[in-house]
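Service request form, structural biology core

Requester: graduate student, group of Dr. S.
Request type: structure prediction, single chain
Budget code: on file
Notes: please return the result as structure tokens.

Sequence provided:
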Amino acid sequence: MYPRFGDQTWITPYGLMLVAALVLCWLYARRRAIAAGLDTSHIDLAVPLIFIVATLGAKFLTLASPDDGNIVGEVYQTHFRFRLFGLLFIGFPVLLIYSRLAKLSFRGMLDVFALPAVLWLVILRVGCFMAGCCWGDLTHPVAGLANISDPELAAQVETLPWLAGDWLITAVSFPIGSFAYQQHLLLGLIEPGARSSLPVHPTQLYELVSLLGLLACLHVFSKKQHAPGVVALVTLAGYCVLRFFIEYLRADNALVFGSHTFTQVICVALLVASGVSNGILTRQKVTAQEAS
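Core staff response, request fulfilled:
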């Protein structure tokens, strides 16, 4: 539950799991490529290309949502945030360009990478929990929230007050040096020298379990015949729904629209886009079947 392993900086818990996730995602994509009749050399070229180029998008959403830097002060501002949707927005056109140059079906390539991407996220959330990032809201009511002068900061750690109560059994406290600890310290919710943060929702584990369920459902769904691109769209829609609700329990993203975060706005936009696209692909498939 620490951002780093002791005093060293060349390797971090998150970075370690990021590499493990990339390797397993790579292997899984190769397996799906074989099942789809695709030369695995394209996977070997596309995976590192997409990952390297898409890393540039890791800071994209941080720039688009600068208020996130105020959540835990300078400690979080200097912490490299591998933003998922930043990866998506950069990785998507990279894969499109590669598919066009290699004369491959772009939608088919998206289907190949869809399930491996979910597996990548599952492993990555283990790294998030180890590093203490992506932490959750308070699980129990705290009297100190009433003393916070900025209501937005108070809402940040208790987005939906009715979700905090003594009835909750899923809670975790992060140690000194963690982001949750730093946030609670800056807000005056804990005293200097406290041994840990206040109990918070283990949102990393919530998402991990949800993703495993999503992956199982997608595995069954992908066994059936679908128009190219449908598996990828269903995967995107499924994740957006999960992430939208988990965001209510996360304390690491600034609220920009009432009790909603910038990430939730993106989730809604992507959910609508995936629904419209899925409808178009379905109609195209029906039209093609009728024509034949």
